[in-house]
Write a structure and sequence with these properties.
194 residues, Four Helix Bundle (Hemerythrin (Met), subunit A), disordered N terminus, binds fe (ii) ion
Length: 194
């Protein structure tokens, strides 16, 4: 599929695409983000919170596309395909987020009353995208995917407005950059596995 220059995702990425193609396009988008940071970034090391925020930006582009196309999709298989892809991509992100950030700061986040909410929202997200794949008809699958996107958007906003600033305030710049380097390594492994 021909892709417009400068766009992370092409406009009609989802229509008629196989799962392999969709995953490949998502992976390519992630690679492009890596390249943006690598290019001329010899002296610049990303902080973990910057890396996670960048991934959020990609998710928002993905959600915009999904919200545009899912209401038009008639075939349940296509809706389920998108639900599966979104679940897979978000799971990878959340795992890295939990392993690198939330586990390191679990005491502080627990004291601030944030840890439970983060965990609950991650579970809700997986469950909603997962149920969309088990739905008996297209309408229900569509409804669940669109609900999951609403939950996901709220979750991303919460992390960026509350959690990431807390992490930035708590950890030293060097620690944030070390975690950023660890994020990059984990992403490289994930990209190699797809
Ligand atoms: Fe998260
Ligand atoms: Fe996140």
């Amino acid at each position: 599929m021909r892709q417009k220059k400068g766009r992370i995702f092409p406009d009609r990425v989802w229509h008629g695409s196989s799962e392999t193609n969709l995953l490949k396009q998502a992976t390519d988008a992630a690679r492009r983000v890596h390249l943006c940071f690598s290019r001329g970034a010899v002296t610049y090391t990303m902080k973990l919170t910057e890396a996670l925020t960048t991934e959020h930006a990609i998710f928002r582009i993905m959600f915009d596309h999904m919200e545009r196309v899912v209401p038009e999709l008639k075939a349940i298989s296509e809706i389920k395909l998108l639900a599966r892809m979104a679940e897979k991509i978000l799971c990878g992100h959340s795992e890295v987020e939990q392993n690198l950030a939330y586990t390191t700061l679990d005491h502080m986040l627990h004291e601030k009353g944030c840890l439970g909410r983060l965990s609950t929202e991650h579970q809700e997200l997986y469950a909603c995208f997962h149920q969309a794949q088990k739905a008996p008809d297209a309408a229900e699958s569509r409804r669940l995917v669109l609900s999951a996107i609403v939950i996901a958007r709220e979750h991303l906003n919460y992390e960026e407005q509350v959690i990431f600033p807390l992490i930035d305030q708590t950890l030293q710049k060097e620690s944030l950059e070390e975690l950023g380097a660890a994020w990059k390594q984990q992403q490289a492994v994930l990209v190699a596995e797809t």
